[in-house]
Amino acid sequence: MKTNFFKYQATGNDFVILDNRKDEYDNIQEEQIRKICEKKFGVGADGLILLNTKVGFDFEMKYYNADGKRGSLCGNGSRCLIKFYHHLGFHQESYKFLTSDGEHEATISDDGIVSLKMKDVVALASHHGDFIVNTGSPHYIKLVTKLESLNVYEKGRAIRYSKEFEHHGINVNFVEQLEESELISVRTYERGVENETLSCGTGVTAAALVCYHNEAGFNEVKVKTLGGLLTVEYERIDDGFYKNIWLCGPAEKVFEGSISV
Question: One of 74, 80, 211, 248 is an active-site residue; which one?
Answer without folding.
Answer: 74
